[in-house]
Amino acid sequence: MSVPSQTSPDEADWADDDQGRKTGGFERVPPGARPEDNFAAEATLGGMLLSPEAGVEVSNILQPDDYYRPVHGTIHQAILDLLKLQQPADPITVGAELKRRGQLDRVGGPSYLHTLVQSVPTAANASYYAEQVRDQAVLRRLVEAGTKIVGMGYAGEGEIDEIAAAAAAEVAGVVETRGREDDFLLPRDTVGGTLDAIEAAGTREGITGVPTGFTDLDSLTQGWQPGQVIIVAARPGHGKSTIAMDFARACTMPRDSAGRRIEGAGRPAAFITLEMSVDELNMRALSAEGRVAMHHLRGGHLDEPAWDRLANAAQHYGEAELYINESARSLPEIQAKCRRLKHRVPNLSMIVIDYVQLITGGSKRRQEVREQEVSEISRSIKLLAKELFLPIVLLAQLNRGPEMRSDKLPQVSDLRESGSLEQDADIVILLHRPDAYEPDSPRAGEVDVIVGKHRNGATATITLASQLHYSRFVDMAHT
To answer: For the purposes of burial, counting CB atoms within 10 Å of the CB of 125, is it exposed (0-12), middle (13-18) or buried (19 or more)?
Structure first.
């Protein structure tokens, strides 16, 4: 791909400014001022103008003042403002918005906006170019911070500890590229909304969050709440993925306390699977909804009544807004895909991720300890839940601790690889099936849902019936 041939707006001013900077302290071309750096900025904006999804993804990487040239920051800001209003952001609409603000001529007019679009064949690489622009901005700020530190060192004014602290603050300010807004709030600004929420909860019938599908669990938690991270952990084969699909079905295809489907009450949910294929997830959902044994589905040996139940289940499941993704593997991929889906489906209500130990951090630097990487993943998932304002159900494997105990009961401390999973989670659920260890157990067919941590409520152990031949769990009353 070649650099666009059209001259950028204010080319002369830019060159003069570049020369001025080179002789005014940088002594070299500043990061971001080279032609290839300018192309990265233009390609980023071109991708944003081509696709609103690219605009959302880039907004998580760049701020308007990260661009070397102010005109690019002006265009970036106009695109963001239109996207926030749920309006299209293409060369025509962005041009109209800039004209309304009196900035269109200053950025190069409509022709430059069309040049930006023509500079890239697809919006798919917008985030790649945006990362280049961000890296150049960080380098540029490091140069500026270094210049200040050099001046402080030569001046030598004040105590040495004060000078060193001021120098450290300059460097720390460079990496603080997010959260730059003054977002502190006073109680007088927020307590009214809190009281309204309390009053609304008292008058609302039913649970306040996303239903779990299990009566006693809903009674304990009031459903999954926005911003929560719910960790469901167990040893392999105890039903983590099964209960996760139960949660997803309860969100997208809810049923009443008698088990009857509630038409028109479903909410969109996402299921990110790092372990199973889409076909396997679909089979589990169809088995659970149609009460058709999984081994019959896999073998294709169904009698006529089973085919009828399967056809009915397929019709309802086909109407569910359950967005399944099997391609995301790294933390950055999961974050980007969830943000894009939330932008495309504003009423997205829940995300399930199966499972945390399969997620890679995506960092370019080598992680010396896997525990550090899992800690980073755990914290990032929590921040994502708060950012998207929806609950995230995160599955996790336990270590062999339960197998070393006489009662085989799992504990929260058995979470593998990182204690930060427990720290960042709002709710930790541990699954225990007695018949997994003793097939002849008098409690065969039961599963204990142990709520081992509940940040905003009580802990408890809830017993469900395991119908694993149908790939589902149900309330004991429904057996």
So the answer is: middle
Q: Is the model's pLDDT at 334 over the cut of 90?
A: no
C-alpha to C-alpha distances, 57 to 5, 60, 122, 339, nearest whole angstrom: 27, 5, 14, 7
Integer angstrom CA distances of residue 109 from 64, 97, 112, 350:
19, 12, 6, 43
Q: What are phi and psi of 425, to 5 degrees?
A: -75, 145
The pTM of the full predicted model, rounded to 2 decimals, is: 0.64
In contact, 129 and 40? CB cutoff 8 Å? yes
Q: What is the mean pLDDT of residues 426-454?
A: 89
Q: Lowest-confidence range among 6-15, 241-250, 428-437? A: 6-15
Report the distance separating Cα 126 and Cα 116, nearest Å: 12
Read off the pLDDT of each residue in 424-436 and give the average, rounded to a whole number.
90
How do residues 108-145 score in pLDDT, each as one tens digit?
A: 899 999 889 888 878 888 888 898 998 888 888 888 88
54: alpha, beta or left? (left if phi > 0; alpha if psi -120 to 50): alpha
Residues 6+ apart with CB under 8 A from 101: 78
Using the structure block, give the residue that is written with the tokens 């079905």: 249
Q: What Cα–Cα distance (Å) separates residue 210 from each residue in 253, 349, 398, 449? A: 12, 7, 26, 18
> Which letter, b or e, does each residue of 191-227 get, where b requires 16 or more Cβ atoms within 10 Å of its Cβ?
eeeeeeeeeeeeeeeebebbbbbbbbbbebbbbbbeb
In contact, 141 and 30? CB cutoff 8 Å: no
333-353 as b/e: b if 16+ CB within 10 A: bbbbbbbbbbbeeeebbbbbb
How far is it, in rounded angstroms, from Cα 334 to Cα 85?
25
Q: Helices 35-50 and 126-155 meet at what angle, rounded to 10?
A: 130
Strand partners, 472: 467
Look-up: residue for tokens 């983590």? Answer: 240
Peptide bond into 129 cis (omega under 30): no
DSSP state of 402: G
